[in-house]
Design goal:
Order of helices and strands: EEEEEEEEEEEEEEEEEEEEEEE
CATH superfamily: Porin
Radius of gyration: 22 Å
CATH class: Mainly Beta
CATH architecture: Beta Barrel
Largest sheet: 18 strands, antiparallel, barrel
CATH topology: Porin
Number of domains: 1
Shape: globular
Helix content: under 10%
Strand content: over 45%
């Protein structure tokens, strides 16, 4: 993979990345299965450094060798138990999933982020048209944030002076255990689910205080902490002719180290049009709207407003979807060639935008290529505009064997 960009934060224009992913699966008769996905990585931008294996994973950079997933499952009748390093996918929306709380993300490249597996145990109970999943995650794993001097870390204003502590992660004991459950079923053509999560936000917020350096000399002090929250959610999807409708919503209630209880929702539709032309087989249109509303402000909270803290950890998360319109147009030229135009418009305050054009082509069953352009616009203080110098071209070559 190669990316070309221009940014004021560093002088490296090209970034080259290589990834080898090996997947092994085995079924043990009718009672169980095992899966391992191992990765070998390298790049010339500092995203990857050293060899490290941690439970939980807290290194700020990726390891040259790592386990993406590693699971062992046992099944008897309708009951299945899976343990190991797992990646979960909950929700029905396309742009982002507020009900999907279990996995942290690798944000070293925010536009090309990926989930980080968590060591966990999951119990699934299946019945006709309905299933229940209960998950326990005993170790807290934070999201991996952009490196301090990378092009993805906003420049701190020269007038900003403060003491910034190391992150205060939850103690790795029983109190750090995260729990989640999801009940999913089908009713009269509607796929419906209810979910619950009790655990931590994976990106930090900042607790404000002061530090006296000398008599009469006091500086602001910022301590990165992780919000403990309870999240009740629901999602749906259904079809009406060529339209697929979907949506999900959550109520995020602060237990500790939080500023606001919030309601987050996203709704949208997909529309598929069969063209059956020689040069155009099918079109897909996706439109979504996301919104966040503050339910209650915790008076007396010492957690700072993330928009007033010029540090990257306080501004990642889902801030791009507090008031946003999302769109995607996909043209399936043939079974081998697909063109996509995607965009996100952040309408909170001064608008900012992220636009991507991507073309993908399958040369053979084993060799796939894609290339595209990323554009970020808006004022420097906006979500996407702070990366306005990071417009880029990217190319990816994948070989399957």
């Amino acid at each position: 993979m190669t990316r070309a960009a221009d940014a004021a934060s560093d002088d490296q224009t090209f970034v080259d990345l290589a990834l080898l992913q090996l997947e092994w699966r085995r079924r043990f008769d009718h009672w169980g299965a095992a899966k391992i996905i191992a990765e070998a990585r390298a790049d010339d931008f500092g995203y990857t450094r050293g060899l490290h294996f941690q439970i939980p994973e807290t290194e700020p950079r990726r390891s040259y060798l790592s386990l993406k997933e590693a699971t062992l499952s046992a099944q008897r009748g309708p009951l299945e138990v899976t343990v190991g390093k797992q990646i979960f996918a909950w929700g029905t929306a396309d742009a982002y999933n507020p009900t999907d709380r279990l996995n942290p993300y690798d944000y070293l490249d925010p536009l090309d982020n990926e989930k980080i597996g968590v060591w966990s145990a999951a119990v699934r109970l299946s019945a006709p048209r309905v299933n229940l999943v209960v998950v326990a995650v005993p170790f807290f794993t934070p999201s991996r944030l952009p490196l301090e001097h990378s092009r993805w870390t906003p420049t701190v204003p020269s007038t900003f002076v403060a003491v910034v502590d190391h992150p205060e992660r939850p103690e790795q004991d029983a109190s750090a255990t995260q729990w989640a459950a999801r009940l999913k079923g089908t009713l009269a053509g509607w796929d419906l689910s209810l979910s619950y999560y009790e655990g931590f936000e994976h990106t930090p917020v900042f607790r404000g205080s002061t530090m006296a350096l000398a008599p009469g000399v006091v500086l602001p002090r910022l301590s990165p902490v992780f919000t403990r929250e309870r999240v009740a959610g629901a999602d749906f999807s259904t079809t009406f002719g060529r339209f697929e409708l979907h949506g999900e919503a959550v109520a995020r209630l602060v237990e500790a180290n939080g500023r606001n209880d919030r309601f987050q929702a996203i709704v949208g539709f997909n529309y598929t049009l069969d063209v059956n032309h020689r040069f155009l087989d099918q079109m897909l249109f996706v439109v979504e709207y996301a919104r966040e509303t503050v339910l209650r402000h915790h008076r007396g909270s010492d957690i700072l407003d993330s928009d007033r803290v010029p540090l990257v950890g306080a501004r990642l998360a889902n801030n791009a979807f507090r008031d946003a319109v999302v769109g995607r147009i996909q043209a399936k030229v043939s079974e081998d060639t697909v063109l996509k135009l995607s965009g996100i418009a952040d309408l909170g305050g001064t608008p900012s935008h992220y636009i991507q054009f991507k073309a993908a082509h399958r040369i053979t069953d084993a060799l796939h290529v894609e290339a595209g352009l990323d554009f970020l616009t808006g004022r420097p203080e906006t979500f996407w505009g702070r990366w306005g110098d990071n417009d880029r071209f990217f190319a990816v070559v994948r070989y399957f064997f």
